[in-house]
Design the sequence.
């Protein structure tokens, strides 16, 4: 092949290569220009399927309770896993045990307010929720957990209790109120509950009492309660087995007053206590009336033994109607109760000691509170 032929072939190859490179460069410039000039595709808007669903929860929590911080983390994770809106977490303080936080939660649009704590927290949240029409739910962290026990909400299984928060039924229950009409002079300022009671009005959901029961609650040791729970109340009660009987004048609704001597007079909205004890077996939490239990013993320790046996038996539906009993518990019913105690006695509401009083009045507020409760179990056929 001549030199001219080789040069011609080389020229053709170079030309083809240059043309190919030019086409590739032109295409890349067009692609790059399109990429720069064209607006970025907008991010996909969240659809209704992606939005959080379910109720807006507000937890009103007592941070002093054991396990409260760990429970907070677990609850937040559970709410995220359930696809719920971000919940509110409002902590109680010594100055405000939950009423202000509950009102704040309602003002911010909470659908369900959950009391996370003991009976004191439950009472404060209930006071803020009464007559609101919104449901209150419970995550028990206390010693007695009285309302939770009477609603059959687990006091040990937190997952089960939270399932009720989400999937339980809304139930209207009665609320009790106790007003201290006349405080009593302090007997011993250094002991809890022995100062004069606050003359304000106090909510209760389970039982209010005056006498032995309040003294027992007042003397329960906090350290012992944290270790053995509700048993600490019975240990404290031993100190008062030989205490004096108290003169009381009792007025029920519009009936004539009755003056008698008792160990305790208790007004019950419902009657189940820790340890499987049913103190007031006929009390129903939504019947619009309170059940009253008058407790008395004589004869020292034998009277208390007989009384305890009667309490246990009535839990099984067995009553002891023998006359002249030295330990007895008598029941009646009323919507309004007025008590006068000339010497003064300690008063408690749902395990919170109010102090000493010479006169108190209680009344029932029917169907005032909506609670989130377990769905009723179907009876097997």
Sequence:
């Amino acid at each position: 092949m001549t030199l001219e032929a080789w040069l011609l072939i080389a020229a053709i190859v170079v030309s083809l290569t240059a043309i190919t490179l030019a086409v590739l460069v032109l295409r890349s410039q067009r692609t790059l220009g399109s990429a720069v000039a064209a607006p970025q595709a907008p991010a996909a808007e969240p659809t209704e399927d992606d939005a959080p669903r379910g109720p807006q929860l507000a937890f009103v929590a007592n941070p002093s309770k054991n396990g409260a911080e760990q429970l907070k983390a677990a609850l937040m994770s559970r709410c995220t896993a359930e696809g719920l809106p971000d919940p509110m977490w409002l902590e109680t303080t010594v100055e405000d045990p939950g009423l202000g936080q509950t009102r704040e939660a309602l003002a911010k649009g909470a659908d369900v307010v959950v009391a996370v704590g003991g009976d004191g927290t439950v009472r404060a949240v209930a006071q803020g929720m009464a007559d609101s029409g919104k449901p209150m739910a419970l995550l028990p962290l206390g010693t007695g957990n009285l309302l939770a026990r009477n609603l059959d909400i687990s006091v040990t299984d937190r997952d089960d209790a939270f399932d009720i928060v989400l999937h339980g039924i809304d139930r209207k229950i009665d609320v009790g109120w106790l007003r201290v009409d006349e405080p009593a002079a302090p007997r011993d300022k250094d002991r809890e509950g022995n100062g004069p009671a606050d003359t304000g009005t106090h909510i209760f959901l389970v039982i209010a009492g005056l006498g032995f029961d309040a003294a027992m609650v007042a003397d329960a040791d906090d350290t012992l309660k944290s270790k053995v729970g509700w048993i600490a109340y019975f240990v404290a009660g031993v100190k008062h087995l030989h205490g004096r009987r108290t003169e009381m004048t009792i007025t029920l609704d519009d009936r004539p007053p009755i003056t008698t001597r008792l160990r305790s007079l208790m007004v019950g909205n419902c009657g189940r206590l820790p340890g499987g004890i049913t103190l007031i077996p006929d009390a129903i939490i939504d019947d619009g009336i309170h059940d009253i239990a008058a407790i008395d013993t004589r004869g020292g320790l034998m009277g208390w033994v007989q009384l305890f046996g009667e309490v246990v038996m009535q839990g099984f539906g067995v009553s002891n109607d023998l006359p002249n009993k030295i330990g007895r518990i008598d029941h009646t019913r009323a919507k309004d109760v007025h008590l006068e105690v000339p010497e003064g006695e300690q008063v408690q509401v749902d395990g919170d000691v109010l102090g000493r009083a010479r006169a108190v009045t209680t009344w029932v507020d029917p169907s005032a509170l909506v609670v989130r409760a377990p769905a009723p179990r179907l009876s097997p056929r």
Residues 1-44 have pLDDT under 50 and may be disordered. The two ends are 107 Å apart (CA to CA). Residues 250 and 258 are 5 Å apart (CA to CA). The longest strand covers residues 352-373.
